[in-house]
Write a structure and sequence with these properties.
about 210 residues; alpha/beta; Rossmann fold; 2 domains; 5-stranded mixed sheet; 5 strands; elongated; disordered N terminus
């Protein structure tokens, strides 16, 4: 295929070096938003696209709406002229148009390319840049929709009395006992936190709540 996009061939076996079949050095990036999510599928996708395991950089439990991501910064720092940054999907790389453009500009300055699921994006090609910006717009639009639906869902739940806000970590009885023990002067804030298995800020909030 000619033009700004070209399908990256999937090798029949894992490469032994950081070079793909066409001679490009491949740098992989994977991300998930929560600690509970698993990066295995993304790692496998990157390996299938020819990225060696030791060239995959990750951000675990970091939202794509945040630009400050250690794994992404390391991946971009590892890219050199002629290299390709490989990402399974655009939403793993950026969830806003400004961030996507910033990353694209960084790759362009380094003379590198971007592969989204195997499709090569050339930052210096006008058509490739246009297509990438369109994808970034849809990624940002998806985030905005999720936020809007979340707000609407919370509003409905609140109206139905199902959303009560954050509940105290200690029961009313535990709060009263914590306050009583604190008033004896025999226990420090750290002692109370350890006894009730809560953090120091929680102890302070409990005392403020029971002693208005």
């Amino acid at each position: 295929m000619t033009g700004p996009f070209r399908t990256l061939k999937i090798p029949s076996a894992w490469p032994r070096t950081a070079r793909s079949l066409d001679g490009r050095t491949l740098i992989g990036y994977a991300r998930c938003s929560t600690d509970e999510q698993d990066l295995t599928a993304q790692r496998h996708a990157l390996r299938a696209l020819g990225v060696p395991a030791d060239r995959i950089y990750i951000d675990h439990g970091i939202s794509g709406t945040k630009r400050e991501r250690p794994g992404l910064d390391q991946a971009l720092a590892a890219v050199r002229t002629g290299d390709t940054l490989v990402v399974p999907k655009l939403d793993r790389l950026a969830r806003s148009v400004p961030d996507a453009r910033d990353i694209g500009d960084t790759l362009a300055r380094r003379g590198a390319s971007l592969s989204l699921g195997g499709q090569i994006y050339d930052p210096d090609d006008p058509m490739g840049k246009l297509f990438f910006n369109i994808l970034a717009t849809f990624a940002e639009f998806e985030v905005d929709l999720i936020r809007m639906r979340t707000r609407e869902g919370m509003a409905v739940a609140r109206a139905q009395g199902k959303l009560q806000g954050r509940q105290p970590k200690l029961s009313p009885k535990q709060q009263r006992e914590l306050n009583r023990m604190h008033q004896t002067g025999e226990y420090t804030i750290s002692d109370l936190g350890e006894l009730f298995s809560v953090s120091r800020p929680t102890v302070y909030r409990t005392l403020a709540r029971t002693n208005p």
